[in-house]
Amino acid sequence: MSTISARRGFFRSAVNALIEARQREASRYVSGVLLGFDDETLKANGYDREELKRAARSRYV
Fold first, then answer.
1. C-alpha distances out from residue 20 to 11, 17, 45, 51, Å
2. pLDDT band at 4 (very low <50, low <70, confident <90, very high)
């Protein structure tokens, strides 16, 4: 593997890790906001309060 492709691999991995971290952060944020809705509204839109609570509490792995 040449140094150019090794660098591309490093930066690609770094960007992918950053994107995944931001996606997890956004998911936790949205789950927290959705928890502000009442149970009836959540159920009507296909959400489960317990599942949202777990998602809102999740941490970075």
1. 14, 5, 25, 20
2. low
Q: Are 42 and 49 in contact (CB under 8 A)?
A: yes
CB neighbours of 55 closer than 8 A, spacing ≥ 6? Answer: 27, 28, 31
How many angstroms separate the CA atoms of 24 and 44, rounded? 24
Closest to 42 (Cα-Cα) out of 53, 58, 57, 29: 53
What residue segments make up the domains of the chain, in order of their start? 20-61
pLDDT tens figures, 37-49: 999 999 999 999 9
Task: Enter the pTM of the model.
Answer: 0.71
